[in-house]
Write a structure and sequence with these properties.
Layout (H helix, E strand, L loop, with lengths): L3 E6 L13 E8 L2 E9 L8 H14 L5 E4 L4 H9 L3 E4 L8 H22 L6 E2 L5 E5 H5 L7 H11 L4 E6 L6 H7 L2 E7 L5 E7 L3
Parallel strand pairs: 1-4, 4-5, 7-8
Antiparallel strand pairs: 1-2, 2-3, 6-7, 8-10, 9-10
């Protein structure tokens, strides 16, 4: 994310709401300091119909170019919706001076990292998933194991074995779990292990032939 921040300012260069704004001052950080990049004048931007306001805000967004962070005293309603819809990160401050930009940017970056981590975690399956072939399931437990998610092999695999009828289940892990033999026998299941690259093994579980 580029270090570019737009600040909503009134005629006295105090941070303000959009309805009191006279300009958006856009700051960017080069080397070790923040400096003024450009100013976008916004007098009476909220006057007129909703269509007029949307058009005016759209013009502002184009003038802000690569900036995707906007800061004001209060950003709500239509202004919030338009900037949020355009992909802006929206922040609010009661008071502003250029010295707060480092802290503000750092806080935003931490929030984004937390959001990205949550999104990535959501992509990691926490239970076996059915493949394109009906009755065949796959579970990359090794991926889950090395994430920050609080799951164990027992808490993810045993519920599946207790509730799901399947033809075969492939589990990726870095070892065969110590509880595996006992639980397989209890459920009349068999398994084979194939060593893969990178210290990973494929455990293929199937119902035992009667």
């Amino acid at each position: 994310m580029q270090k570019i921040i737009a600040v909503i300012l009134d005629e006295n260069n105090h941070i303000s709401e959009m309805k009191e704004a006279k300009k958006l001052s856009v700051f960017h950080k080069t080397e070790q300091k923040w400096s003024l990049l450009l100013e976008v004048m916004v007098p009476d931007i909220l006057n007129g119909s909703i269509a007029d306001i949307r058009e005016g805000l759209g013009r502002i967004i184009k003038e802000l170019k690569d900036c995707r962070i906007i800061v004001g005293k209060s950003i709500t309603g239509l202004v919030y919706n338009v900037f949020n819809g355009a992909g802006f990160i929206i922040s609010e401050l009661e008071e502003f001076n250029i010295q707060v930009l480092d802290e503000l940017y750092s806080d935003i970056q931490k929030e984004l990292e937390a959001v990205y981590a949550e999104q990535e975690a959501a992509k990691i399956p926490t239970a076996p998933v059915e493949t394109k072939e009906k009755g065949n399931y796959f579970f990359d437990f090794n991926l889950l194991k090395h994430s920050d998610l609080p799951y164990t092999s027992k808490s993810t695999i045993l519920p599946f074995l207790n509730t799901t009828t399947f033809h075969q289940l492939e589990i990726l892990c870095d070892h065969v779990m110590p509880w595996f033999d006992q639980e397989m026998k209890k459920r009349n299941l068999t398994y084979t292990v194939t060593d893969l690259t990178g210290g990973i093994c494929s455990i293929l579980v199937k119902p035992a032939m009667l």
